[in-house]
Amino acid sequence: MNSRTLEWVTEVLGVKFKTLVGSAGFPWPNQAQPMYGECGETYFENFDNYVAKNNLDIRLLLSTPAEELIVDEAGVVTGVRGTDSDGSTYEVSAKLGVVLASGGFSGNTDLVIECDDTWGFA
């Protein structure tokens, strides 16, 4: 997470972090862990609270893979189409932009095992 993002997450969303910790191969502390929650739970909870507190018209669609970007004649992405886990389809238009976010790498056990050449999870 870069410094501008960290500033926004801490000062605007109010996420509090544990002391930085290091990981193998890095000579300096490089991992920021929220004080509570797992796998992004803290970020989403604080973001949801911020959206509600500021009465923002923002809706998160979780477990809804984006299947197609909607692109205008000029090549600008103006929306996205996707299908929710219950089979509902969505077409979302955006005036100011589309944010695509993926799940954590650690949440895909098969991919972790496939790519692991350090930790011995395979």
- The tally of helices reads 3
Distance between the termini: 28 Å
Could you give a short account of the major beta sheet? 3 strands, antiparallel
Could you name the ranges where pLDDT drops below 50 across 5 or more consecutive residues?
none
| Total strands | 3
Spell out the helices and strands N to C: HHEEEH
**Category by helix and strand content:** alpha+beta
| Tally of domains | 2
What shape does the CA trace take?
globular
The overall average pLDDT, rounded, is 82
Helix content: 10-25%
Strand order within the widest beta sheet: 1-2-3
C-alpha Rg (nearest Å): 18 Å
Description of the structure:
The protein has 122 residues and is of the alpha+beta class. It folds into 2 domains: 60 residues, no CATH class; 60 residues, no CATH class. The chain is built from 3 helices and 3 strands, in the order H-H-E-E-E-H. The chain has a 3-stranded antiparallel sheet with strand order 1-2-3, with no helix packed on it. A hairpin with a 5-residue loop joins strand 2 and strand 3. The longest helix is centred in the middle third of the chain and has 13 residues.
